[in-house]
TrEMBL record, chains A, B:
GO molecular function: DNA binding; DNA-binding transcription factor activity
Ligase keyword on record: no
Name of the protein: Crp/Fnr family transcriptional regulator
SUPFAM superfamilies: cAMP-binding domain-like (SSF51206), Winged helix' DNA-binding domain (SSF46785)
Record's keyword annotation contains Disulfide bond: no
Lineage: Bacteria, Pseudomonadati, Pseudomonadota, Alphaproteobacteria, Hyphomicrobiales
Organism: Microvirga tunisiensis
Amino acid sequence: MIRKLESIFTLSEDERHALQTLPMQVVAIKTDQAIVREGDSPSRACLILSGFACTYKVTAQGKRQIVSFNLPGDLPDLQSLHLTVLDNSISTISPCSVGFIQHEDLRDICERYPRLTAAFWRETLIDAAIFREWVLNVGRRDAYTRMAHVLCELLTRLRAVGLVEDHACDLPITQGEFADAIGVSTVHVNRVLQQLRADGLIELTGDRLKVPDWDRLKEAGEFDPTYLHLESNQAAA
Amino acid sequence: MIRKLESIFTLSEDERHALQTLPMQVVAIKTDQAIVREGDSPSRACLILSGFACTYKVTAQGKRQIVSFNLPGDLPDLQSLHLTVLDNSISTISPCSVGFIQHEDLRDICERYPRLTAAFWRETLIDAAIFREWVLNVGRRDAYTRMAHVLCELLTRLRAVGLVEDHACDLPITQGEFADAIGVSTVHVNRVLQQLRADGLIELTGDRLKVPDWDRLKEAGEFDPTYLHLESNQAAA
DNA sequence: CGACCTGTTGATACTCGTCAATCTGAGTGG
DNA sequence: CCACTCAGATTGACGAGTATCAACAGGTCG
């Protein structure tokens, strides 16, 4: 969490220490397990310590739409601090280590360190900015561009928390999950990925993504990292 | 703003009074005028007093995606309080009266009435919830359902601020704007609206929307107002 | 009155979904 | 150590939903 918060906010020593000593229940969770469900009213927030999760909603016809990938350092249901009933579900998509923090502890630390209120608020505002970008992505881009865009976002966010080396990273996301994220069918994801590979924009095998030409992938995905609101210019790297 | 905040948060007398005496510059703005633009770093937030506006982003190819309609009482760029550079534009889509409130005045009132921080934070969290629902709407529903859903949302939000009478309301939104909101072409919006009319779900002429059968429209749009997080059960009305 | 924006309609083309079969690789148990 | 299983990836054929293009109608406003 610290690393993630510091990628979007500058913390003082005291604040960092307060965060580090926050009581937290750590749990190991397998792949494809629900962390929270739509309709829940949790009394604690979850923090992804390692592994990947996703936030999603489901149509009346049972179609799933992933609205966000949750990466290490993310607080994907921080909203529950002020919205009593959850309007989305969160599940792991790889083995995860998840920390649970009581709402009362979060409220307490925010009261003692008012700047942390701003930091957490800012975190939720960036989530909202990502949702906005996804509405644009799903609403107005074709499947090829959409896919490239999502890959750019993932790479940039992973880089911000130190999980990218040499333009390569672990990416435990299936084609079915990508399909639910960009709003197309699994079959079409497969074809688009092959096209991206054929165009030399990505090397994606198993759980590993490598990007030989970041500039061209950015261009293909119409990717401008401004909406991620990262503090330093890690995005440019 | 008061009316809107009270639809999602219970205010005390003091808090209401503080909000009512907040310094605000009121400006009349014509249709299709920018209020703020992507890339701006405003030092004030805007409040829609009357009229309709929309938040949108634009693709590299120049395609527009509306990510939210801004109704009277909304604070559509409240995010700028903690995100310095805006990642979206806001324009009017009807003649509007807009109030501008300095960020410093908002910070000041939040410091004096800490519960207002929570109220404003909550407001931005509900915006995020709406974005999530829109990702689902655009990503996983067909045009007919999408259109019905957006109409349900508009009607519900307008009802929360007292702008609906007898299941009818003013709705100064063109078919081109609906198209940009639900991610389809203008032509297709036209056809879908005709279908909705033919099915007896809506009466939409000029700037006026009437809903003869709310339950059937809700069903057609797979609409569940939970994600709007309204305080009282106005949604059910 | 003419310009213009919005709404409407028809014809045609294309992106992408669906269905169904096959293939691959990573476990798992005997 | 190998057959078995199963999830995920891949491929082809076909169809549905929607985009695009183009033309025209109706209302508004300078």
